[in-house]
Amino acid sequence: MTARDEFSIDFIAEGSAMVAVFHKGRQVSPASRNPEKLRPILAEKRRIAARAGRAWRCCLSCGERFLSEGVHQRLCAKHRSAASAEMPDQESPSYRSMMGK
Ligand SMILES: [Zn+2]
């Protein structure tokens, strides 16, 4: 369980046997005694949150519109791979033409 995505399974109250899915400290699922029952709910909440962040955005480098996975992603595939040169996107046509293939 990481704190990074802001979703967690936690006890609904101190000393309580009931657990629930929390998002930023707010309860977002029914309470249950079985944490295993909450795991699919947690996965679904994460999936929905990930989808909600997805949108068409303009690349900060070239201004081209691309499907961004979230607000953190502001570069198109081409400039993202250029920004992380140690991990080039080998599937992209620009990478192949760069490599003369
Ligand atoms: Zn770009």
Q: What does this 3D model show about the protein?
A:
With 101 residues, the protein is an alpha+beta fold. The chain has a domain of 46 residues. The chain has 3 helices and 5 strands; from the N terminus they run βββαββαα. The strands form 2 sheets. The protein has a 3-stranded antiparallel beta sheet. Strands 4-5 form a two-stranded antiparallel sheet. Strand 2 and strand 3 form a beta hairpin. It is elongated and about 60 Å long. It starts with 6 loop residues before the first strand and ends with a helix. The protein binds zinc ion. The site of zinc ion (ZN) has 8 residues, from helix 2.
What is the multimeric organization of the chains shown? single chain
Range of strand content: 15-25%
Report the end-to-end length measured between terminal Cα atoms: 43 Å
- What number is the mean pLDDT? 85
> How do the SSEs run, as a string of H and E?
EEEHEEHH
Task: Spell out the blueprint of helices and strands.
Blueprint: E1 7-11, E2 19-23, E3 26-27, H1 35-52, E4 55-58, E5 65-68, H2 77-83, H3 93-98
Antiparallel strand pairs: 1-2, 2-3, 4-5
The protein binds zinc ion.
